[in-house]
Write a structure and sequence with these properties.
Two copies of one chain form a homodimer. By secondary structure, chain A is of the alpha/beta class. In chain A, α1 crosses α12 and α13 runs antiparallel to α14. The first copy, chain A, contains 14 helices and 18 strands. Chain A has three domains: about 100 residues, Rossmann fold; about 200 residues, Dihydrodipicolinate Reductase, domain 2; about 80 residues, 2-Layer Sandwich (Alpha-Beta Plaits).
Chain lengths: ~425, ~425
Amino acid sequence: MKNKINIAIVGLGQIGSYLLNELTIRKKNIKLLTGKDINIVAVSAKNKNKKRKFKINKKIFYKNPLKIIDKNKIDILFECIGLSDGISKKVVEKALKNYIHVITPNKALISKHGDYLSNIAERKKVNLEFEASVGGGIPILRTIKEGLSTNRITKVYGILNGTCNYLLSEMDRTNDNFKNVLKKAQTLGYAEPGNPKLDINGYDTLAKVRILSSLAFKKKISKNELLMEGIENIESKDFEIANQLNLKIKLLGITEILNNKLFERVHPCLVRKNSYIGNVNGAMNAIILDGNPVGQSILQGEGAGPGPTSSALMSDLLSILRGNIKNPLGVSSSKRKYISAFNVNNYENSLYLRFEVKDKPGVLSEITKHLAKNKISIQRLIQIPDNKLKTASIVIITHKTKQLNSDNCLKSLKKNKKILKRPVLLRLFN
Amino acid sequence: MKNKINIAIVGLGQIGSYLLNELTIRKKNIKLLTGKDINIVAVSAKNKNKKRKFKINKKIFYKNPLKIIDKNKIDILFECIGLSDGISKKVVEKALKNYIHVITPNKALISKHGDYLSNIAERKKVNLEFEASVGGGIPILRTIKEGLSTNRITKVYGILNGTCNYLLSEMDRTNDNFKNVLKKAQTLGYAEPGNPKLDINGYDTLAKVRILSSLAFKKKISKNELLMEGIENIESKDFEIANQLNLKIKLLGITEILNNKLFERVHPCLVRKNSYIGNVNGAMNAIILDGNPVGQSILQGEGAGPGPTSSALMSDLLSILRGNIKNPLGVSSSKRKYISAFNVNNYENSLYLRFEVKDKPGVLSEITKHLAKNKISIQRLIQIPDNKLKTASIVIITHKTKQLNSDNCLKSLKKNKKILKRPVLLRLFN
């Protein structure tokens, strides 16, 4: 690799403009570490004149990012737009095809098109790096690809979305409701001001789980249908009850090999209060890996925000500047296969079910009848009446229950008019 | 790098023989990940016929490891003897000078001669890798060198010795004394059966701290005199009192930049019971880094034992097989400087002091007089009488106290005949 490196940044939102500043102030440091002189020769964003925290040189500004590739000799391109398709995909594709290394924090793009793009990168012998796409500043992908590379990993799970973890921690801490806590998170910058849906419904975590699976198990990125449940239905009374049971509520992303099948899932979990994962609070991310021979490894750090993301982007940059051409997903595309999905219907787990019901005789017996019919046995039952509203919360902790049975049971209870709301279902972590 | 790689292993103790087996069973996996065929062409140990858990091929056995280099075309050599000097140093030196890559888990060697050996490796353009020297299976060195490479790290600390952490956790859990818990640890393989002194007195942690400092702050490995205190004087009553104060006792290794000076230290610390580090128990290791812009990062995993160590050794092997020639200490030797030591006399900290005294009038007033004379002010005092022995434990938690003052105070109390034992000094973590 030559000594003068031309860099382009596409997308100047929060991440892109922070990165631009970091590259400028750490230019000397990068030279010290790698011997390379970096120069930012092109930037691109929708709006040239938008107010940004960091200055941009308007002489190198492009409205159309694809033109950057035509008009400049670029060595490395940062894609910081963040779409799963559209211009994000186009610009990455075009860059790789033109022998340009690409660095991106875009999990939506990688989880959807990572195999396709890796294949291009491998053919063109350039790097496609995306450390920032999972776990923010935590170098989890590099740890799997390099630090733990010869381990047989059997399970990876953790808190992968800082927004959800902040919301759950705050609801637990303050006893405030979801709506208020979300508003606070948006003000503080922990949640998207416009549409935080993709964080809250689990989709963001899911994209990260797919990338982790591929790396940990050395397989193609799965396109399987899978279990995805968000945190939008959790209420403060769930935290109260969890507390009584010595549990905490966390949104976990989990991937593991079960009976030689891939089981990926995202859902809120009840974890023990004194467990490690139960004590990861606020916007923190944490990832736990079970591997052989290494045993259990834990990585924790700030999972989002421009600082941590930029740290990961810079580590990708340094990896490229040191001149290593690597397979983007660890093992070359031709050697990774698809792995079939574990049938979620067979998933057995203890459940926490909360029903909001009219406080009338017979309700509990109707619910327990349906449970019994679907072979769901009860481990613990808590009934909390609300005398003012003449309603009650019925919380049931079940023994291990098949997903299919709990689905059927909740379906059969749907039409019951004494049940006032969609029941809350949380899973106990085991 | 060519496709057939010749490997030698020097030292076939617990680590070396486990590694030998791992390399054999993971040969295919290594080929998949790197395209390289590895062959173990020579092994060396003191005793050819010693009973080992894994079989060795006696046809490739050498008694003198230096002869391996003369008689074979070796590409990569594993040094698993573990001495800080002597044959460990000689064989590594000779290998590097003969353009052979070296991988070692030997922290004693690296913390003492790492700069000298790195210099040879850099000149000969080969790798010297030592991921396993710190944190066992936790890829902490790679994380600092690569994952967090452009961050400005200001502090690194953690639990770096699994033996001590096991002993402290067990004393806390069982209320048993040091001697018994040590015996149990030796039976279970958590402590050296022969001479566990280097673990217990903090020396092992210190060697790791020196390696971490060099990497985190991009400086030469320090040869500074520094604060090193072990866990040998801690008694079960210290755990009882710590518990009452909502604290836990942990042996921490800490390195930080204070007023542009390097402050490295190893000593038992009182940490908050509900803190992250307070909940790392058993033989686990954990490392916490404060960096900018990444924020705080935590890595936790099994810190010792052949499985985790072998995982780290294999990651070094893969890094070499992928063909990356890297500076062993991240930045080239010529660009790393020595950094002068923070004067430990000026270190200010809250202390926990426990005095075992004769239960006679005037003792407490004598102690407090000496404290006052040395400008040590008391935050909290606990007196626990032992009516049978007519003795008492006096525990004092001080306000922030200069190291020089506490040293002087303890020295001046040394001759006092009413004080029955050497006082226990623990530091509160802040």
